[in-house]
Write a structure and sequence with these properties.
The protein is of the alpha/beta class. It is built from 20 helices and 21 strands. It binds adenosine-5'-triphosphate. It comes from Lactiplantibacillus xiangfangensis.
Length: 601
């Protein structure tokens, strides 16, 4: 009781400070804007150079210099106030979610309140610590007693005396959870029980130990994550983006990040997570869009990735070749070492042409692609093939991206990995996927494409009730250690297809929740959408995402998404019993619902 009273008082103090600061900072920003306008007007008057005499000229320059310094100072003050205001607003609904009492062995124990962003008062005193700060690692790593954490390359020994979680709603403290004594993770279970009627949510307050290890992994340039359905791979990927932006805050901005997503509907689904963590929205693109953008730099128009020969080209480039590639200046090729691989020779020839100012005006038509295809006994070279060759030959790097993040990685074929390893050979790469969620063909061994990488796995599924998780686990193949965390809930039910209207009618009273009606194919989904015209049809490229009420979509789009209620239409279709991938499709489909799962046969 005393604890609750003390903590409630602390919260109210901080809440009061946040609201007061919001008012003060808003006024300060307005005043700074007015001041900046005055200085700017001054600058345009003074900027009118008086070059009458030598001294007048010097005076003019000095005044310009003073005014620009004043503008720089104003800008810096504006930025500081703007960030504080943004953080105060972000923290208002939930100032912090946890508290650590730490003993560094030197004086009285210190209390650290952890929030989505850090917050300092006007004197620079930390009131809330950012969840990404080094000290927060002890919270997520679930350590108590004598332990340590890493900060600025140093190991800091510390004793964790206490670890508490809070349920907070603006200035009201609803619950304090002593995490040493709590069984399970009540806060996690409470969060998981909420409705899913929009995009994905950030998970800062309840990040689990194995997820934290992925978010904070900093030893390897390439991190691979293989995790069961609903294990938080997408959530962890986004939290890691935020973490990397914090870790590299001196030299990275959100513009340095690229997230590869399977389709537009998915990009929409994850939108909002990073702004909720105080970061700007990073760039997202599908792989095809990325290739189209890179292709443009080489004057190539890429409309499709189909029928490509990248794996064969990679092999050809790795071997020595005595024959001059069709269209290449023979003198240039003759300059190169004949024992080198074709790739090295082409790169050397390119450099020689560059040095002798003989580079082609139009790179896209540089080599004789048709002859080259014949020479290499290939059916032809698509625009995508040519792009790959040009990237290899010119050693082109997408250096504007410092952090590359790839979701649903199991769906990418070897050509994608061959291309990405060339394009992003210096970037920090995080790749997440589930080798059992491949819907067509076989997933390649992604690690084999990287010289050095580490693979971490996640085998606890958070998304669904125990009963749904147990149900989809039977299709999860070699994920034999798949774990559930939620209570058992309702058993999945199998009903005839004709019952669809009845099923929907029973779910209608909960229309504030989301229902996903999942068809095997796009045409099947379109047919259902005609039957239920008020429903939302989700297509791969539609700039929409999950909404409360009825969403109709094909399995390929449902992947990565979740609904309060999932209805799998035509569960007995041959689509779900195809020899190689039928099980995977069942696994993906059955793992979309969080509260109920209905299979229509
Ligand atoms: N630590 C956590 N705290 C709270 N919620 C979590 C946590 N981890 C995962 N979740 C929730 O579990 C659900 C599944 O997460 P997510 O979509 O990131 O999983 P996934 O592994 O990417 O799923 P899939 O394999 O289907 O793509 C989401 O609702 C997410 O918010």
């Amino acid at each position: 009781m005393l604890l609750m009273t003390t903590e409630q008082a602390h919260l109210q103090g901080l809440y009061h400070q946040l609201t007061t600061d919001i008012t003060a900072l808003t006024a300060q920003l307005a005043a700074l804007t007015t001041e900046a306008r005055t200085v700017q007007q001054q600058l345009s008057t003074d900027g009118h150079l008086d070059l009458g005499s030598y001294t007048e000229t010097l005076d003019s320059f000095a005044s310009i210099e003073t005014n620009s310094r004043q503008i720089d100072t104003l800008n810096a003050r504006y930025h500081t106030a703007e960030v504080r205001l943004e953080h105060a607003r972000l923290l208002l609904p939930q100032a912090y979610f946890a508290k650590l009492d730490l003993d560094y062995g030197d004086s009285v124990p210190e209390a650290f309140y952890l929030g989505k962003v850090g917050y300092v008062d006007e004197h620079g005193t930390d009131l809330v610590y950012n969840w990404r700060a080094p000290v927060a690692d002890t919270y997520y790593a679930n350590r108590t007693g004598a332990t340590s954490y890493q900060a600025n390359g140093r190991t800091i020994p510390v004793t964790v005396l206490n670890r508490q979680q809070f349920i907070i709603d603006y200035d009201q403290l609803h619950q304090v959870i002593e995490t040493q004594t709590a069984i399970g993770d009540p806060l996690l279970l409470a969060v998981l029980a909420t409705d899913r009627s929009g995009g994905l949510q950030e998970i800062t307050a309840t990040i689990q130990q194995s997820q934290n290890a992925i978010i904070r992994e900093a030893q390897h340039r390439v991190l691979l994550v293989d995790g069961v359905a609903g294990s938080g791979k997408t959530s962890v990927l986004l939290q890691r983006v935020a973490y990397q932006l914090y870790r590299h805050r001196q030299d990275w901005t959100p513009a340095d990040i690229l997230i590869l997503t399977p389709n537009t509907a998915f990009s929409r689904y994850i939108r909002g997570v990073l702004p909720a963590l105080g970061e700007a929205e990073p760039l997202t693109a599908t792989y095809l869009k990325l290739m189209q953008a890179v292709g443009k730099r080489f004057g190539l128009t890429i409309t499709s990735l189909a029928g490509n020969h990248l794996p064969q080209l990679a092999k050809l480039l790795a071997r020595p070749s005595q024959v001059t590639p069709a269209g290449l200046n023979p003198t240039a090729y003759a300059q190169t070492a004949s024992t080198d691989s074709l790739n090295k020779r082409l790169q050397a020839a390119w450099r020689w042409l560059q040095a002798t100012r003989q580079l082609p005006a139009d790179v896209a038509t540089w080599l004789d692609w048709d002859q080259l295809a014949k020479q290499w006994q290939l059916s032809g070279l698509t625009a995508y093939d040519r792009l790959y060759l040009l990237i290899c030959i010119t050693n082109y790097q997408q250096t504007t991206t410092k952090g590359l993040f790839i979701d649903e990685a199991q769906d990418y074929d070897p050509d994608v990995w061959l291309m990405l390893t060339k394009l992003f050979s210096a970037a920090q790469v995080t790749i997440v996927g589930d080798h059992r969620q491949r819907l067509i063909g076989q997933a390649p061994d992604i690690a084999a494409f990287f010289d050095a990488s580490v693979t971490l796995t996640l085998n606890t599924s958070y998304r669904a009730t125990g009963a749904i998780t147990q149900f989809f686990a039977q299709f999860a193949g070699d994920w034999t250690d798949l774990q559930a965390v939620q209570s058992i809930g309702k058993t999945p039910r199998t009903l005839p297809l004709a019952d669809l209207e009845n099923v929907l009618a029973t779910l209608l009273p909960t229309m504030s929740q989301s229902i996903g009606l999942i068809a095997p194919t796009m045409s099947g989904a379109e047919k259902l959408a005609r039957q239920f015209p008020t429903a939302q049809l989700l297509t791969p490229e539609a700039p929409k995402t999950v909404q409360p009420g009825l969403n109709i979509l094909p399995l390929a789009v449902a992947k990565g998404l979740e609904f309060d209620h999932a209805i799998i239409y035509d569960w007995h279709a041959t689509f779900y019993s195809e020899p190689q991938v039928g099980q995977n499709r069942r696994y993906v489909a059955a793992s979309r619902g969080t509260k109920t799962l209905t299979l229509l046969t």
